[in-house]
Amino acid sequence: MFLTITTTGTPERPATDLGFLLHKHPEKAQAFSTSYGTAHVLYPEADVRRCTAALLLEVDAVALVRRGKGKGRGGAPDAALAQYVNDRPYAASSLLAVALSSVFSSAIRGVCNARPERAAQPLPLRVEVPALPARGGPELVRRLFEPLGWTVTVEPVALDTEFPEWGDSRYVRLVLEGETLTLAEALRHLYVLLPVLDDAKHYWVASDEVDKLLRAGEGWLPDHPEQKLITSRYLSRRWSLTREAMERLELVRLAEADDSEVEDIDNAVEAETETEEKPTPLAVQRRDAIIAALGARGAARVLDLGCGQGQLVQALLKDPRFTEIVGVDVSMRALTIASRRLKLDRMGERQASRVKLFQGSLAYTDKRLKGYDAAVLSEVIEHLDLLRLPALEYAVFGSARARTVLVTTPNVEYNVRWESLPAGHVRHGDHRFEWTREEFRTWAHTVAERHGYDVEFVPVGPDDPEVGPPTQMAVFEMNTATAKTEKTEKTEKTDKAEKTDKAEKTEKEAKAA
Fold it and tell me: What is the pTM of this model?
């Protein structure tokens, strides 16, 4: 991956001042370590009349794959070979843009203590990029650079010179020439527009990218005719980030037109204060929804299956409607933390009688789980391998058979709304899967039909009209016919046990006589 910057000069203003502006000595070849390989800066030519600085980025394909891998399970699969065999080591992209900002960090800010007057002056510049991915072709390259004062020479690269009938590739050879720009302005143009033309970034785009874009776009982006395209592509088409950037750019444009500061324009709403209400965390919304559903169904004796560190158990204990709460988890460490959270060793006798914690696996039937009004599986099923899900299903719905069962799980469709969540990744490293709303409903309806329950679905968190809520909750209730059958069977078993006990007592009395 290669880029050159050339300038010309005179004895009074030598071209070798480029070395001062870039903070890299023309007589040295320097190497800089980056996260994805090694960046080299060297000067193929350097004299009074003409000076050329070259940036060569050697990309370590293995490091690129390792650092780019998603964490957790459930991410979109990549073609194994394509991770190592691609154009990243050879074509200018966001990798080169990041190297520019890292290696020439002072120059891109326009800082030069040795030649401050030169840093503020326009230079005769020529920038060459031998291989540049250009999604949109040569015409888009011109539309992006020409409004900034560059004379643009762009040559499409043929797919194969031996077979011209195959046409052109998506790569171009780019030459930019201009005399009205400072070196800092030129570098900022490249920093933004190289990844825009590639229409891809090698790293996850988060909210801080908006600030980076506005800093690099200062002075030219607010009035650029392709502002919307640049903003959208630079932010990897993240609609929420794009909207934020466009709104802030419009404020900048209005401030410049009014010859005032942005802060003076953007003063309709007072600054946030510490007393302003903060959004309720999703975990709290989930617990509130569970408690509301349990209360609406009159549940008093509740199982928290997969209770983890006891947050839900703690919330249930605060509500006197729940007379018995049992937390079950396979992890003894989690149960120990839950016990500390609940302060069981210091809890009053009456309160302590309402709560129990014990170890158990939800993949196996357990007699201790029978006879409860309700069972809760909050953010549990997604931690199991799909092959083990039928075992949990039978243990909960087929064996324990609480009258009401609540199941919550992430809605994978909502993941696109999380700014900090990389595309294709799951929300937690231990999630074996995350279901769409349709997948969850199909599973829930199948379970309900198989075990004699009715099921309804409740959104938890903001219900987005396009992708639904962040958490989906299924409320299973044992249907009337099943409940009557089980009540009859229970009564018959009780009567039979009583008759057996009475007969045994009579027999003992007869023998004694």
Answer: 0.53
